Amino acid sequence: xxxxxxxxxxxxxxxxxxxxxxxxxxxxxxxxxxxxxxxxxxxxxxxxxxxxxxxxxxxxxxxxxxxxxxxxxxxxxxxxxxxxxxxxxxxxxxxxxxxxxxxxxxxxxxxxxxxxxxxxxxxxxxxxxxxxxxxxxxxxxxxxxxxxxxxxxxxxxxxxxxxxxxxxxxxxxxxxxxxxxxxxxxxxxxxxxxxxxxxxxxxxxxxxxxxxxxxxxxxxxxxxxxxxxxxxx
Length: 233
What we know:
The chain has helices at 21-27, 56-75, 91-96, 99-108, 128-137, 225-228, and strands at residues 33-37, 40-47, 50-54, 156-163, 173-181, 193-199, 205-211, 217-222. It is an alpha+beta fold. It has 3 domains: 3-75, Defensin A-like, CATH 3.30.30; 91-137, no CATH class; 152-232, Substrate Binding Domain Of DNAk, Chain A, domain 1. Strand 6 (193-199) and strand 7 form a beta hairpin. Belongs to the heat shock protein 70 family.
């Protein structure tokens, strides 16, 4: 085992500056070193007693060469023609990823200019082209890169409470909202949040949310339930 000299996920560094929030966050989890080279990120390893640095593009360019060496050793002959198949993104595929982004404000019935903060969620949002499309869609608004996109879903959960009998949430009346924060960084879908609703005889609604892994609890009390009817929540 040689973790400090084992490079992985270096694709996240391609196109990103060293001071990028995503890079700084990822560095905390990588066993290998990432150093600043005039604003660009380079990975640093030790080889035969020497310290060497490589741009992430250089690392990935070494992969086909190494694959050729392994293939020749296995086949016992020289390989002169080879093909590496990778997933190909074209303009239409990139453009298609914006469809949910465009529909979200429309479904919520507000203009995209009213959005205060844009947080990147999911590893694919690390792609510079994707970030450019998002920024252009939001009329040049700066993207929030302070949170690692791969971990964003685990930073906190927001609960919104509505009253009404309509099938669609947007057609009901909002009562209040609160956040359950401090959830440990875990893969998407792993956190388990137990939410409890309790209405007393005076029509006061108490809502609590507990993270099952840490027992960390957040709660809120809503006193205007009586005016709208507790049975309609």
